[in-house]
Amino acid sequence: MSEFWRDRSVFVTGCTGLLGSWLVAELVRRGARVTGLIRDWVPKSRLYTEEWDQQINIVRGCVQDLPTLKRAINEYEVDTVFHLAAQSIVGVGNREPLDTFETNIKGTWNLLEACRQIGGVSRVVVASSDKAYGDQLVLPYDEKTPLQGEHPYDVSKSCADLICRTYYVSYGVPVCITRCGNFYGGGDLNFNRIVPDTIRSTLRDKQVVLRSDGSYIRDYFYVKDGVLAYLHLAEQMDRREIWGEAFNFSNELQIPVLEMVRKILELMNKTHLEPIILNQAKNEIKHQYLSAEKARTLLDWKPQYSIEEGLSEAIQWYDKFLNVDNSQTSTLLKHG
Q1: CA 268, 193, 319, 183 torsion: positive or negative?
Q2: Number of domains in the chain
Q3: Is residue 116 in a domain?
């Protein structure tokens, strides 16, 4: 294993989330000195259930608060920043656009401004999304595709991307942007997302309910591949020529929602549980598909996990997680 991260001071925002909890764990394994920004207490996050919180510094606060970010970067003498904190649920974004803009846009400029003012940070990796591209006629999206989000979440990501670019061009902040598809994997506690919802429903022998008609095409990306991609990009940022650049990371597979559901049902031997289709989804992009050619060419990157491998590991994780959860509930009921 590379010694790159040993004793390096790393600041992670959004470390209780799906990607953040896996990233923190891997950074700790690699010997980094990690500081995490935590807004909410999320007791079932992997950060707590697997006790990674015991091995990192914790700063309480949110990305909307610039003084908190400046203090964290200054006091912990941060070298590397992974900015993952975001309001990441499309439906929540539609219901609460102002909160989404505050978190995703202001949170990004605050983070970059803190790095600019304090100085000393050698690399900043900011999590964007394939949603930043908006709805496009020409697919797959590559990094030259215009950023033209239209719905609240998509617009927040388009704006954050442009802010990253200006902090590099105007101020020389060493920032790179990641654009990934829909992350999935063990530890995702947002059960309104299709992968964890399907796995949970199937484990309980129930049919999963689809908001859409099932034809929407998404770019699914396993969380462990995401962690490796983020770390690889950060390591490559010793090369100044990639500063200010955005990179798509993807398996480059086009998978309709209904096909993803059926793939999970097949892996779980529950193909008789046909999904219930509501066809009620609104303000969502119908077809998303990323090209990762730039990352392959410039970064010598490639994914390590197939969809089947990622889903199989995720199914095992949720089986264990939900069984532990149910046994604890039963114990509480017996002794309550």
Answers
A1: positive
A2: 1
A3: yes
**Catalytic residue, candidates 133, 141, 153, 230:** 153
CA 31 vs CA 8, 82, 216, 221, 231: distances in Å: 8, 16, 41, 26, 13
DSSP letter for 274, please: P
- Give the pLDDT confidence score for residue 284 in this predicted structure: 74
Would residue 153 show up in a list of annotated catalytic residues for this protein?
yes
8 pLDDT more than 50: yes
List the beta strands (DSSP E) in the chain: 9-13, 33-38, 57-60, 80-83, 123-127, 175-180, 182-184, 209-210, 217-218, 220-222, 246-249, 255-256, 276-277
Please identify which residue in the block is written with the tokens 């970064």. Answer: 299
Which domain range does residue 116 map to?
A: 9-184+220-252+284-304
Band the pLDDT of 326: cuts 50, 70, 90.
Answer: low
**Residue 205 amino acid letter:** D
Predicted TM-score (pTM) of the model is: 0.93
Residue type (1 letter), 190: N
Mean of all residue pLDDT scores within the chain:
93
End-to-end CA distance of the chain: 48
* 109 and 83 Cβ atoms separated by less than 8 Å: no
Question: How many Å apart are CA 35 and CA 24, to the nearest integer?
Answer: 9
Residue 22, domain member (yes or no)? yes
SS3 state at 15: coil
Residue 54, domain CATH: 3.40.50.720
Each residue of 239-297: pLDDT tens digit?
Answer: 999 999 999 999 999 899 999 999 999 999 999 999 999 887 776 778 888 999 999 99
The runs of H, that is alpha helices, within 103-256 are: 107-118, 152-171, 194-203, 223-236
Residue 142 binned pLDDT confidence (cut-offs 50, 70, 90)? very high
Q: Are 308 and 268 in contact (CB under 8 A)?
A: no
Which residues face 11 on adjacent strands?
35, 81
Q: What is the pLDDT of residues 84-113, one digit of tens each?
A: 999 887 778 889 999 999 999 999 999 999
